[in-house]
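dude i think i finally got it to work??
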Amino acid sequence: MKPKRSRDTLHGIETAKETHSSMNSLEQRIAALEARLTQVEDQLAFYQAVATYGPAVDSLTNDVAGDLWFEDGSYDIGDPSFAMGSREEIIAVMNGEGHGALVDQGCAHVMSTPLVGIAGERAIGLGYHRLYRHTEAGYECYRLSVSRWDWMRDGSSWRAQKRTHRLLDGSAEARTLLKETLLEIRNMTKPG
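look at this
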């Protein structure tokens, strides 16, 4: 036969159950907040990386720009004469005469704030890249491109696996890159 429990003992059990339930709820809320904070920190890291690129290449601090990529990362600007299939090749193009002459003339590589989609260890950024250059008549927008960044987590940071540019010159290729990347990011960021 079970001993009878006093009202105080029963109240204590109910209080313990409520406390346990609220602890689970608190733990779940903290875990959700931590996940949201990680998402915000990751997104901020992408903004910082994209914002680093222009000042790095315009100041010929090309090792800083190159460090945005994995060793086997690639940069496809849509021109086969600038095939860049590794960090080393990316830095070599940045250190080349063509880029150096552009910097000597006066230029600015300006990125828009990217739209970012994150799914686990993978992320995509989509934005616009404007290249301004100084001429005798003043400044001009020399190139306007759609820019897609494909990122992978590298320990506690992110690095680019691939960056793809297409000139916004009315070509179907540029519109396709915009549309497909936009829809891919949208699917990555859908709730549930």
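Residues 7-58 form the longest helix (52 residues).
im so relieved honestly
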